[in-house]
Every structure is written in C-alpha cells, then in structure tokens.
Design goal:
The structure is a single chain. With about 400 residues, the protein is an all-beta fold. Helices cover about 0% and strands about 55% of the residues. A hairpin with a 4-residue loop joins strand 2 and strand 3 (about 45-50). The relative contact order is 0.15.
Length: about 400
C-alpha cells in the first residue's frame, strides 16, 4: 500500500489545444498560478505555470534534484519557498521571480523512514511522521516538529514525540477562535504489531511541543490510511465548524468517516469537551473505493475529493458546512490512471470553476478534471503522459 502523496505534471512536447495540456515556453515573471510536481523515477521536482483562465500548464525551468525518493511538497503561505519531504530527509527551495525552484543550503536529515508531512496554515510549524525498520518500544516511530517561518527555508528542530503506535497519515488545523493548533495522526498498529485502528489528537503549543489530548486516541474503521482536517467556517464567520475525515481500507473495500472537533461550546460540546479537543463521530461511514490514500478539499472547503489507489478512481462529496456530513456528488466518481496517490486543486481566474489534478504513480500519467465551483461536479477528464515517471508529490497555488 502506497503512502506516497501526490503530484501533477505534463510534458513539454505535448503542446495542444486542450484545457489541461502543457503550453511550451517559459515565463519571465511569476505566473498567477504555479504547479510543482515530484518524480520518484527521477528523484526531482519540476515547476509549471498554471494559466488560471484555461488551466493550461507551461514548463518554467529544468527539473531540480531532491534528496532521494521524494514523497510530498509543501509551499509556504507567501509562495516564496518550498519544502520537499524525501524518504530520509527534508530539502528546502526558494521560488524565483519566474516561479522556478532553486535548492537552498541546509536541509534536515531524518533518522527514520519518513511517511508524510504537513504544515500549519500560518507556516510556523512543519510536522513529519516517520518509522524505523522494525518499530518497537526501544526504537519507536516518531513525530518530528520543526519551527520555520513564511519565506524561510530554515527548519529548526522544536520537539520529537516517541509514539506507541505505528502512524499512517497526519493533518493539522488551527482553530481561529482560540488560535489553538491541533495535529491529527492516524494509526493502524501498536508496537507489538497488533491492529490498532485509531486517530490520535495532539495540542501544539507555541514552542512546537505536542501534548496528546485527554480522550485520545479514538477508534476508527479498519486500517486508516489518510486523514484531512477541514475548517468550514468562511473567513470572519462562525457558521461552520472543524471536521476531520479519515479514509480507511477494510478487508475488501474502503470507507470514509467524519468526526467533529469540539472547538466551541454549544449544544453538542461542553467547555470540558472543548478543553479536551473531543472528537465526535458524524453520520455513517461512507462506502468508497479501495485504499483511499489521498484527500483534498476545494478552496471554499465545500467539496471533498478522495483518490482511491486500489480502484483507480476519484470520489467526490459535498460537505454540509454546519455539521460536517457528506453527500455523494453527481457524478460520484471519475476514473483515473493506475495507482492515483495524490491530488491538487486550484480555482480558476474568476472563481467560477476549479482545476483538479490527480497523479497516477504506476501508470506515470496525470488525470485532470474541471470542477464546477457550485456543484463540485468533475467533468472534461483528460490524461497526460508523464515522461519523468512515477509522479508522487504536488503542490499548487
């Protein structure tokens, strides 16, 4: 089962009159939209300009080497820098005036095999989960926390937490009303290799120190493989809530579960629940394709898309912003290439639609969709061959 996170790319030589195909050439100034794609076949990252009117992609610069087997890429909030998580390291890059990447000095070597990373919205912390060759009490999996700042490629170790469970995925959210940062980590085994299907919840203090919440961990469906925390409150409003979605893979099929985070006192959550970061199940588990390894929401946090690695499809849901409940979109699914491992989504120029991209690691191609901004409907599918091979990490802005 792949734990890779995803990417998108298109070929220089495939210039065509298509919504998602690549335009040849480069830009002399930073484009309005940018797309960065990792290749596990070449251990590098490439830069593309994203035309926000058409969705077309234009190659910006030559590929830049990563630290070996890149997994995911994260852009800082200002769009000035990027970090790439490799299997054994984190490498930093500056983003030039044309959107191209340049390696920065430094970087961080990890003592274990990295699985995934995430960064808080403010860009103050970077979180990484990793595992040793044989997890045990003497050599446990870790959550590593680094402090950084927008526009910087410097990572400073802040804290390391030894785990008693084997992690699979992580996501972070900041509660606007309290400025509390909360990290969610899914687990599928304990250190004796027994099944332990759960999600752990951690408070992150101002120094990056993690404290597990009182009622954590919480039981999930069998074998959680992905997690995504979502804030459905529009800017400056409190009409939505804070929700966490967990993708799992059972014996024969996948599922998608929702949880509400108690972030404010209301009819459902007491002050003690808020203090304890209580998670409450929301609705029934949604049936979904096999190995739902990647999730992404649209820029308005209204639609949730899930890439299922084992069934080669993307599933779409509308989020009920007040409760976190999920309603299947129409169409409910769209096919992808082989082994989709990640997605990226970006609004178009006038916010009337979005462009959703899926990286297919095994078939070395990219599937693209146009997404209706009010309906969430995925349409106009297109597949683009990815010559570098094995796309595995992507970030767009």
């Amino acid at each position: 089962m792949s734990k890779k996170t995803g990417g998108v790319v298109a070929l220089l030589g495939m210039c065509a009159l298509s919504l998602f195909l690549v335009n040849c050439g480069s830009s002399s100034s930073r484009p309005a939209g940018l797309l960065y794609v990792l290749s596990q076949a070449e251990d590098d990252v490439s830069s593309f300009a994203l035309d926000l009117s058409s969705g077309n992609l234009s190659f910006i610069n030559a590929s830049v080497t990563t630290g070996g087997l890149p997994l995911s890429i994260s852009l800082d909030p200002t769009g000035a820098t990027a970090f790439v998580l490799n299997q054994g390291s984190i490498t930093g890059y500056t983003i030039g005036s044309d959107g191209g990447l340049s390696p920065s000095s430094g970087g961080v070597t990890l003592g274990q095999t990295a699985l995934a990373m995430t960064r808080d919205a403010a860009g103050a912390f970077l979180f990484v989960i990793s595992v040793p060759p044989v997890p045990s009490l003497a050599d446990p999996p870790l959550i590593s926390v680094f402090t950084t700042s927008p526009g910087s490629t410097t990572l400073t170790p802040a804290s390391t937490l030894a785990l008693t469970k084997v992690p699979t995925a992580l996501s972070v959210i900041t509660v606007s009303s309290s400025s509390k940062t909360i990290l969610f980590v899914t687990n599928n085994k304990d250190l004796q290799s027994n099944n332990d299907n759960s999600i752990s919840v951690y408070d992150v203090d101002s120094t990056g120190t993690l404290t597990e919440s009182l009622a954590s961990p919480y039981v999930t469906q069998v074998n959680p493989v992905s997690v995504l925390a979502v804030n459905t409150n529009p800017a400056g409003q409190a009409t939505g809530g804070f929700f966490t979605y967990v993708g799992n893979q059972g014996a024969t099929a996948g599922g998608l579960s929702a949880f509400q985070l108690c972030a404010i006192v209301n009819a459902t959550c007491s002050q003690q629940d808020v203090d304890n970061d209580l998670l409450l199940p929301v609705g029934a588990t949604q049936s979904i394709g096999q190995n739902p390894v990647a999730m992404v929401v649209d820029p308005n946090n209204t639609f949730l898309f899930v890439a299922c690695e084992g069934s080669n499809a993307v599933h779409g849901f509308r989020i009920t912003t007040s409760t976190g409940g999920l309603t299947v979109l129409s169409p409910a699914t769209q096919p992808t290439g082989s082994m989709p491992v990640a997605m990226a989504i970006r609004s178009n120029k006038d916010l009337t639609a979005e462009f959703l991209y899926v990286s297919n690691n095994l078939s070395s191609n990219i599937t693209g969709f146009s997404v209706g901004a009010t309906t969430g409907a995925m349409s106009n599918p297109i597949t683009v061959t990815f010559t570098p091979g094995a796309p595995a990490g992507m970030a767009a802005r």
